[in-house]
Amino acid sequence: MRAIVVEPPTPGARLEDVPDPEPHRGEVGVRVLECGVCGTDRDIVAGQYGTPPTGSRRLVLGHENLGAVEAVGPGVAGWKRGDLVVATVRRGCGRCRFCLTNQSDLCETGGFTERGIRGRDGYFAERYSEGPEYLVHVPEALRAVAVLLEPLSVVEKAYHEGRSVLDRLGPTPGHPRETPPSALVSGTGAIGMLASFLLRSEGYDVVAIDRHGEGTPAAALLRRIGAEHVDAAGGLGALSGRRFEMVLEASGNAPLDFDLLRALAPNGVLVLTGIPPADRPPISLAAGQVLRDLVLANQAIVGSVNANRSYFELGIRHLSRFRKAWGDAVARVITSRHALDEAPALLADRGSGAMKNVLTIAR
């Protein structure tokens, strides 16, 4: 079968023939329909990280996926040919308390593997085999947007982490809040856009910032769902001093991450999902002032990575909610679709500004 492969840490990706997987006992064979391309894929292609499976120099790339069941191996029940599925990404270490309770996103040992990223081949291929415990059934009605489920699962977890911090404040009997909660989203790629959808569906007033003007598809889409777009190319002064209970960062820019603390309201939480490059020069900041403000304003910073199955299942429910509230708006997060043989060039392009590019692998 055809697949997009890399040889970390050597930069570059190529289309190559690789062995066609056969489902073993207890596995399901899946024909890949679509895969999303994200910043992690591009970082691996750039040679920044990525680990092949043990004993191999080659890694099949890709972790955002949508497929259809093609074969059901012996010992598997509850699946049939044609079922739509999205596979989770991380596989637990098998040792720590979190991995042993299906929460590998919280792995304590670091011994996990990840499809298409670390130690396991991914989904930029025509087929894969997988245990059913890692497959999430997708309703046919969500076929057009289901490839967004993996990035949405990341948002679901990040929101849960931030909400857990805000919930520490508890109720104020006799003094209910008089205004909706407020959120700032940094970045209008797929993670930032899906975060805006989720936060709006949860009743937040949402402002999303990027470095682009009002004429972009992202800005138009934000207006459609009742969120505000702000061009912050000139800095956070564009926010006019506004402050927010939750700031969800989706840009992976270290200097900006610290600047975002200035937009955080008292008792607020900054949730980080972007992964800044580790090899950039050090930045200068007034560390004492930053820490002082965090303490005196009861603020928190939380990092959130990956997502376990429960967040994928939440994502299914929310995709349906988005469609009910805003029609085909969430489908507009998908900027373009491309053939598999276009993937190497697409992965090398880091400046397109697209919300989400998708590889169409099979009909």
In short:
This protein is an alpha/beta fold.
The coarse silhouette is globular
Oligomeric state of the chains in view: single chain
Radius of gyration: 21 Å
Query: Could you please say which CATH topology of the largest domain applies here?
Result: Quinone Oxidoreductase, Chain A, domain 1
Helical stretch tally:
8
H-E string: EEEHEEEEEEEEHEHEHEEHEHEHEHE
Count of folded domains: 2
CATH superfamily of the largest domain: Medium-chain alcohol dehydrogenases, catalytic domain
Structural class by sheet pairing and helices? alpha/beta
Strand content: 25-35%
User: For this structure, what is the CATH class of the largest domain?
Assistant: Alpha Beta
Euclidean distance between termini CA atoms: 15 Å
Uncertain residue segments: none
Mean pLDDT: 95
How would you describe this protein?
- This protein has 363 residues and is α/β, with parallel strands linked by helices.
- It folds into 2 domains: 2-145 and 334-360, Alpha-Beta Complex (Quinone Oxidoreductase, Chain A, domain 1); 154-303, NAD(P)-binding Rossmann-like Domain (Rossmann fold, 3-Layer(aba) Sandwich).
- Helix content is 24%, strand content 26%.
- The chain has helices spanning 39-45, 149-166, 190-201, 217-224, 254-260, 287-296, 309-326, 343-348, and strands at residues 2-7, 10-17, 28-37, 59-60, 64-72, 84-87, 90-91, 113-115, 119-120, 127-130, 135-137, 182-186, 205-210, 228-231, 244-249, 264-272, 300-303, 336-339, 357-360.
- The strands form 4 sheets. Strands 3, 5, 6, 10, 11, 18 and 19 form a 7-stranded mixed beta sheet that branches. A 6-stranded parallel beta sheet has the order 14-13-12-15-16-17, with helices on one face.
- The relative contact order is 0.16.
- The model has no long low-confidence stretch (mean pLDDT 95).
